[in-house]
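User: Earlier you gave me the apo prediction for this protein. Now I'd like the version with adenosine-5'-triphosphate bound, so I can compare the two side by side. Same sequence as before, with the ligand SMILES added.
Assistant: Got it. Here's the input I'm using:
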Amino acid sequence: MFSIDMGIDLGTCNTLVCVKGEGIVLNEPSVVAVKKGTNRVLQNGNAVGLVAKEMLGKTPGSITAIRPLKDGVISDFEVTEAMLSYFIRRVHGRKHFIGPRVVIAIPSGITAVEKRAVLQSAERAGARRTYLVEEPMAAAIGAGLPVTEPTASMIVDIGGGTTEVAIISLADISVCKSVRTAGDDFDEAIINHMKKTYNMAIGEQMAERIKIEIGSASVMGDNEPSMDVRGRDMISGLPRKTVVTTEEIREALQEPVTNIIDAVTQTLEQAEPELAADLVDNGITMAGGSSLLRGLPNVIANATGLDVRLAEDPLTCVARGTSVYLENLELWKETMESDADDL
Ligand SMILES: Nc1ncnc2c1ncn2[C@@H]1O[C@H](COP(=O)(O)OP(=O)(O)OP(=O)(O)O)[C@@H](O)[C@H]1O
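And here is the structure of the complex with adenosine-5'-triphosphate:
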């Protein structure tokens, strides 16, 4: 073996890597710990992923834990490159002489400049050739939708930084919309709610825990849970705890949830009549980690009048989709954008 082919879901929150014939071999948070004020990755370039996520918000003065992607795109070029390089090295190892061919899933709404940033990062991180695929297409393939058939498939992929909505037929995206509202905005809405209502400052990790434990988009029954939340009192400056309810978190999440519903309905409004007709039977499939927010499929079903189902294992759909591209790389490579093209 001189080289391997790998598929990467380079996400705002999590990066997943799969290898042809082996499936998903790496699944780690997209976080890097660097020496403050520099782009030097700690532990000889190895403070990446889980190790670094544990440091988020808890670092001493000399260390910063960075999430180099924001809203689904690269916000810190050098750190993204260091992160990709670490993940590629870990998977590719030293057994292979030649750099891997890499298929990377990117949000459908990114600009040519942002695409170039992804391609250059991958190249400098050691990839021999990089191909780009659109995230909603990869998500739909990973969710097992019949994308090559002459019938409409609709995917709503809600990640950490972006929500991708697409209607696909005959292996092509017919309509799509990418909005930069997703799980991170849910966390931010919770942080703002805690500040405004309780004068309490909480970190991103605590906000995410609240969202996962008691967050919801619609009423879940009579006995909705509440939760103890710990943070810093913004007036006294001292640590304290308070109890928050599911209902107040649902209200706090209303704005980002509405933005996502709008993206879905606007995409449907642009669908060709024949494809819209197919969706009456085929319904909508949801993928991405934030599709796990309780009640979100319900509110989308209510807003659209269509059946909505959650894909199996929504967090890995995009990565599993890229692995289907890997299986067919020789056949499909001419149809994908790559670093061989002049973007
Ligand atoms: N059970 C859950 N309920 C609500 N949200 C969840 C749950 N599990 C994970 N999430 C959220 O899912 C998001 C991560 O999803 P995912 O890994 O699909 O995103 P990503 O691919 O990193 O982001 P993007 O596609 O936007 O670049 C995070 O915001 C996380 O808090």
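For your comparison, keep in mind: The two ends are 31 Å apart (CA to CA).
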